[in-house]
Amino acid sequence: MPSAKLKVYAAWFDMMTSDQRAEWPSKLLIDKRVTHFWDDRKLLGNWYATFREFSKGSGHVVWDAFFVYNSDSKWTDQPSGLIGWGSTIISHKSQLAEAVAASLQR
Fold first, then answer.
1. Residue 28 placed within a domain
2. Which residue from 50, 63, 77, 85 has the fewest beta carbons nearer than 10 Å?
3. Phi and psi dihedrals of 50, rounded to 5?
C-alpha cells in the first residue's frame, strides 16, 4: 500500500538469542512511514502484557505482535481506537492486512 497514509512504529527488543541489537535486521522495514525504536528494557512489551487480552492471561512480555489503531486514537493510560491486533505477525499477516485496510476506510 505505497500510497496509503499510515504511520508505522516498529519497536524492537531482545527476546531470543538471535534478537540482539547487533543482529537487528535494520533493512527489514525500509518504508519512510516506519519509525524504528530499540527498546532495551522491553517497556512496550511489558506494558502490553498488563492488558489480559494481549498477553492471553500469561502476563509475559508481548512480542512479535502488531496493533492497528485509528488515526484519531488517543494515547492516555490505555490507547483508544484499536482496530485489530495479532501475534505472531507472520502467522496473522492476513489479519494484519485486514486491520490496515479497515483503518484506511475510516
1. yes
2. 77
3. -75, -15
CA 45 and chain centroid, separation: 9
Domain range spanning residue 54? 8-104
The rounded Cα 62 to chain-centroid distance in angstroms is 10
Are the C-beta atoms of residues 103 and 69 closer than 8 Å to each other?
yes
Mean pLDDT score, 65-84: 90
Measured CA to CA, the distance from residue 50 to residue 43 in angstroms comes to: 11
Can you read off the three cell numbers belonging to residue 103? 483503518
Residue 46 neighbours by CB under 8 Å, 6+ apart: 61
Give the distance from CA 29 to its chain's centroid: 13
At 18-60, the pLDDT tens digits run 787 877 777 788 899 999 999 999 999 999 998 878 877 667 8
Q: Looking at the domain assignment, is residue 64 inside a domain?
A: yes
pTM for the structure as a whole: 0.85
